[in-house]
Amino acid sequence: MISGEVSLTSDVLIRPVTLDDADALARAYRRNRAHLEPWDPDRPAAFFTAQGQSDRLRVQLEEGRAGRSAHWVLVGGGEILGHAALSNIVLGPVRSGNLGYWIDAGHVGRGLASAAANVVCEAAESQLALHRVEAGTLLHNTASQRVLTKCGFEEYGVAPGFLYIQGAWRDHRLFQLILNDRPA
User: Which residues are listed as membrane-spanning (predicted)?
Assistant: First the structure.
């Protein structure tokens, strides 16, 4: 995967997540709690603590070593300003993964989500040789839909009751980006 820092803008970079990011991630999630709440699953109180993030990072890093996911943070001004991930990576004849991302409320509208998505998709193709990247958004998340469309994703359907968010199973718009047509 991305094996170092990649500049997204003159003041923001993306890099692989490390265990040392636990404190900064906890601060970022606390700072963005209200901003992310409409889009995220319900989070226990421990999620917003350094220990909760440390536990979560250990799982993410183990998943990464097993080739099932990859996680990055966006960093600027000494703070974490977002997160991007490829999850549910499947190799073999499928060769796909799911893209997810969020951007700090104070940095929305700067093109960071699009830039991060492009970097992650490039890594998915060049370093994992994936064929396809998928992403899903809540039906009313038009900002994220614009990001995906800008990055070349095409909508291919709606998944009823796709994720449990804010106390109910919510429908999601599904998008895909075909990276290449190489044999699996």
Answer: none
